[in-house]
Amino acid sequence: MLARPNRLTRGADYKAVVRRGRRSAGAHTITYVRTTGESDAVRFGFIVSKQVGGAVVRNTVRRRLKAVSAASLADSQVDAGTDVVIRALPSAATAPYVELRDDVTRSLSRVRA
Q1: Pick from 97, 104, 100: which is nearest to 78 by CA?
Q2: In whole numbers, what is the pLDDT of the chain averaged over residues?
Q3: Residue 12: which of 40, 57, 52, 43 has the closest Cα?
Q4: How does pLDDT run across 52-62, given as a tens digit for each residue?
Q5: Is 107:29 a contact under the CB 8 Å cutoff?
Q6: Which of 46, 52, 63, 66 is the most exposed place for a label (fewest CB within 10 A)?
Q7: From its phi and psi, is residue 81 left (phi > 0), alpha (psi between -120 and 50) or beta?
Q8: In terms of C-beta density within 10 A (0-12 exposed, 13-18 middle, 19 or more buried), how is residue 47 classed?
């Protein structure tokens, strides 16, 4: 699970990352990354709409994405002072964890380069 300092909580922060951040699309997710000079912590946010599925499916996808984000945080794949928003596409509902992990990792490396 992501610690409190590593989570986006305000709607304005989500909006800023999605509108002004760099975008990278994968098979199951779209990743938005915005570098801010304000905070030292890397913050993650997740958007999982009803198009993905019912409540149980959405929460399962969200938990998987949180686990992927925690692993990328531990591996230092994202620089400090960065906000990341991961939007799940409907295909994420049936994707196994490994495919989601590879999709997000590939997107983060593309945006970072």
Answers
A1: 104
A2: 90
A3: 43
A4: 999 999 999 99
A5: yes
A6: 63
A7: left
A8: middle
Tell me what pLDDT residue 113 has. 65
The dihedral formed by the CA atoms of 87, 88, 89 and 93, expressed in degrees to the nearest 10 = -170
Which uninterrupted H or E stretch holds 11? helix 11-20
Strand 22-25 relative to strand 82-88: parallel, antiparallel, unpaired?
unpaired
Look at residue 3 and tell me whether its pLDDT is greater than 90: no
Query: Would you state the pLDDT for residue 39?
Result: 66
Q: Using the structure block, give the residue that is written with the tokens 């409540």.
A: 55
**Per-residue pLDDT tens digits for 80-103:** 888 999 999 999 999 999 999 999
Report residue 28 as tokens: 């199951």
What is the DSSP pairing of strand 43-47 with strand 29-35? unpaired
Give the integer Cα–Cα distance in Å for 84 and 109: 12
